[in-house]
Here is the input.
Amino acid sequence: MLKKFKDNLQKGQNVLGPFMKTSDPAFVEIAGHAGFDFAILDMEHGPIDIIMLQNLIRAAQCSNIFPVVRVQDASEISINKALDVGAMGIQVPQIKSAQQANEVIKAARFSPDGNRGVCRFVRSANYSAKDKFEFFKEANENLLILQLEGTEAIENLEEILEVKGIDIIFIGPYDLSQSLGVPGQVNHPEVHMKMKYIIEKARGKEIVVGTFVDNMENAKLWKGLGVQYISYSVDVGLFYQYCNDIVEKYKK
Here is the structure.
């Protein structure tokens, strides 16, 4: 699953998936059966704990949807725990500098590429059933996604993009809009200008770009501008929207 997902990105293909804030594995399975390419299991803004997380990852693997975990922060322990229970992609919020980016890479990789804490008695190593050397090698291929969400990150963008090992640069439009003084206005001209700047610079370094959208118009806009990794809305928001549409149509 990991190799196929990374190969598709390297071939220039687009991938689509929602953020998942519920703790019910059924929602993840449904997203997979619906045809989404990936699901972002959200530990930053969702109620998911580490026990829930491993069951959500199992659900993703059962329904052939690529499991990305947005960790709660850039700490080594947060990154390591998510990888230990089987995350194939790690999405790290609030990256502001090249130093932070380097620290994330090192926390997510085993030696010689990093200094991730070593334990082979974990789910991602089949609880020690997998050959340890095979495990160490495969683990260093996991997808690494760094979220750039504010003006400080943009000021340091060129240095961040020089960090080796980044697979995807993810633009957080809502936090970006807040940092630009127009909170929530994700279609504000200043927000679009900064997003286009990041896209241009990242693609110039052959780094895949991702972003979040909550409507199809914006999804098509950013896809047309070269964004390959599109996070489309949130499971709870999609469920609410569909329920609300039914209620409104019924009332008419």
